[in-house]
Design goal:
alpha/beta, Rossmann fold, six-stranded parallel beta sheet, 9 helices, 35% helix, Riboflavin kinase domain-containing protein, flavoprotein, FMN
Length: 236
């Protein structure tokens, strides 16, 4: 998967772009349904599957405070790649993006910059200033700009619609089995090992201190885990 930071750095015309848009925090089963759709459609048309996402959660910019996410940008990019996405375009969520109307977002980014031929959106996707953009609005511009719009239905787990908010809440509360069911994989954290206080040496076994990049974490406790590092898996 190619990752491009900034829409102006595309550098070429895309081939039959099948585009989706979203934060995709957690890349849960609902998100996976959307992303698998763009990958499938792109494969059928010899086109390219494009995920358009943001470098930070919009609330982080609007509230001026870092927001804890299920998956950091780095983590999301890994998961997008595993799903077979061709290109992820990462937009910096700044004042300019925050003040871009939904209509301008469709015209300038989806149409002019990406040349979208198909746009696939989640049922509750929102974008643009004041979150006024949604699947219904994009459908209204489909004829004008010559692209097809597909809106994906929500995915449920145990009778509840899967959402990033619900998963975040379950992880924080320690309901990891429910979070796992909604994510479609084990709960995981993505972090950078940092220097700690050296307590592992005193305890007699190695430990690792992680900077979790503002990812949510389960309550304090002892957990059976696996560590993935440099292409290898370790019990921890």
């Amino acid at each position: 998967m190619d990752t491009i930071f900034g829409i102006r750095k595309l550098g070429r015309r895309l081939t039959w772009p099948v585009v989706t848009l979203g934060m995709f925090d957690g890349v849960h089963l609902g998100h996976q349904k959307v992303i698998e759709k763009i990958v499938s459609l792109a494969n059928k048309t010899n086109g390219e599957s494009i995920v358009l996402t943001f470098d930070r959660h919009p609330r982080s910019f609007l509230s001026k405070k870092p927001q804890s996410c299920i998956t950091s940008l780095e983590h999301r990019l890994v998961l997008f790649g595993r799903l077979g996405v061709d290109i992820t375009v990462v937009l910096k969520f700044d004042k300019k993006i925050a003040e871009t109307s939904a209509e301008d977002f469709i015209a300038k980014i989806m149409y002019n910059s990406l040349g979208a031929r198909v746009v696939v959106l989640g049922f509750n996707c929102s974008f643009g200033k004041d979150r006024r953009g949604n699947a219904s609005m994009v459908c209204g511009f489909a004829h004008k700009y010559g692209f097809e719009v597909i809106s994906c239905e929500p995915v449920e787990f145990e009778g509840e619609i899967i959402s990033s908010t619900t998963i975040r809440k379950n992880i924080i509360q320690g309901n990891l089995q429910k979070a796992k069911g909604m994510l479609g994989r084990h709960v995981s954290v993505f972090g950078t090992v940092i220097k700690g206080s050296g307590r592992g040496k005193e305890l007699g076994f190695p430990t690792a201190n992680l900077n979790l990049h503002h990812e949510v974490r389960p309550p304090s406790g002892v957990y059976a885990t696996k560590v993935f590092f440099d292409g290898k898996e370790y019990n921890a």
